[in-house]
Amino acid sequence: FHHTIKDVLQKTQRLAEVLKNLVNIAMLRLSDRKLKQNIRELRFATKSKHPLLKKFAESISPYAWSKMEEEIKIMKKKSYDFVLNKETSTYIIASRNTTYRLKSDLTACTCDFFMAFELPCRHIISFHIQENTEIPTGSFAEHWRNECLEDDATVIANRSSPIGV
């Protein structure tokens, strides 16, 4: 923009022509601004991460995040009631056909997703969102972390039960 004005002012033109060119440049810039605003308003909505999940999402691999997004889709269709069992330090989550147990420190769940991937499942995510707390980065299996390849992280295969049930 400034380069264009410099070109207009450096040319040996009459004052009326310079003013006309400057007004044309200003009008062009204003119409361009309106066009860009219209484009922004019409742009399709993109998937944005929940603010409480952003930091965690950035700390894990894209594949792991895609798996968690599937859980989030399921979670959005349901609401969960968490009942604390003080004796076992677990939350009981009743589903249609099954009852799940979630560790009270939110590091493990008995659902199939957590057992298979050791990533935060819909139950853990839902609890964090209900309590308005972030999922701590580094609180789940190291092999999903972005820096895993640089850190020589070890992969624990086939843990039998994360809650000890």
- Approximately what portion of the residues adopt beta-strand conformation? 5-15%
If strands are numbered along the chain, what order do they take across the biggest sheet?
1-2-3
The major sheet is characterized as: 3 strands, antiparallel
Helix/strand order, N-terminal first: HHHHEEEHHH
Low-confidence stretches: 149-161
State the secondary-structure class.
mainly alpha
Distance between the first and last residues' Cα: 68 Å
How many β-strand runs? 3
Protein name: SWIM-type domain-containing protein
GO molecular function, one term: zinc ion binding
Keywords: Metal-binding, Zinc, Zinc-finger
Organism: Daphnia magna
Characterization of this structure:
This protein has 2 domains: 41 residues; 94 residues, no CATH class. The protein is built from 7 helices and 3 strands; from the N terminus they run H-H-H-H-E-E-E-H-H-H. Helix 1 packs antiparallel against helix 2 and helix 4 crosses helix 6. The chain has a 3-stranded antiparallel β-sheet, with helices on one face. With 165 residues, the protein is mainly α. It is rod-shaped and about 90 Å long. This is SWIM-type domain-containing protein.
List keywords for this structure.
165 residues; mainly alpha; zinc-finger; metal-binding; 2 domains; single chain; three-stranded antiparallel β-sheet; zinc
Please sum up the structure shown:
This protein is mainly alpha-helical. It has helices at residues 2-10, 15-42, 54-59, 62-76, 112-117, 122-131, 148-151, and strands at residues 82-85, 90-94, 99-103. Helices cover 47% and strands 8% of the residues.
